[in-house]
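Quick start: what a row looks like.
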Amino acid sequence: MPNKDDVEKLSRGQPTRKKIGNRRIGHRLTQKERKLFESAKRQGFLKIPVVGIRANVIRIYQLWCESVGRELTIKHDENG
């Protein structure tokens, strides 16, 4: 099970202690994705816009939920 610090490091493209990432998959979040991730941590769910999001933000949020013992909740924003 990952810890919060490792998930934060992974989301910034830094090496983690527990080696939770994969070198073939880019986990570093863009500025827009970082805003979505930070908002999801506060609100308790990840709100996905219709376009413009990569699967890595979902994976980072999933790992963060695992690390804090929170249920993974994803909502799709119909308005974009």
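That is the whole record. Strands lie at 46-48, 74-76. Residues 4-76 form one domain.
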